[in-house]
Structure prediction request, 178 residues.
Amino acid sequence: MITDLQQALKRCSKPERVCMAVCYDEKQRRSNIITLGWKMWTSLKPRMLAFSIVPTRHSHNLLIKEKQCVIAWPGPDMVKGVMLCGTASGRSVDKFKETGWTPLPAQHVKAPLIEECVVNLECEITDTLTTGDHTLFVAAVLEGHVASDNRKILFTIKDELHFMHVGSDKGYKFGAFS
Ligand SMILES: Cc1cc2nc3c(=O)[nH]c(=O)nc-3n(C[C@H](O)[C@H](O)[C@H](O)COP(=O)(O)O)c2cc1C
Prediction:
């Protein structure tokens, strides 16, 4: 056993399945998409989840304001767009336009579903908590939408040792897991 905090955290924090939060931007009259690795389920009944966002992100302000969003899980064919949504800011980039993805009206929230995604969950933010340099958003799932085919969900793994890699893109490793 070696005492090394950095290595210990690296080894236990991956693999990481990414999702995206779609947030309505009233000021720019469009919706924004942020890629998220840090998320978790928090309740079965009612179904709830939580995700962590750095306060400087554009999406952070939109979520604080609107208190709702769509959480969308991409397929393995969406890697390029997922990386764009995870590196560009919605302050200056229209991410639906740049990715070419299709916004579909949701039933309960202002932000749209992403048609190309495997799963879209309509969510209402019920709580926030400051946790160090991130804000934890807690959200109740209002409605769910799933692709009609059997496409698998994108799995992202940072390029590190000690776990299985499938495919690769820009320093992140991707693979499809059911
Ligand atoms: C694979 C991946 C995972 C990410 N996970 C998170 C995350 O969990 N929380 C976060 O605040 N930013 C995360 N980011 C960074 C944001 O997606 C990125 O800063 C984005 O450009 C913010 O967009 P916005 O300014 O339009 O909100 C991630 C980026 C990538 C590529």
About this structure: The longest strand covers residues 119-131. The longest helix spans residues 5-13. The chain has one domain: 14-150.
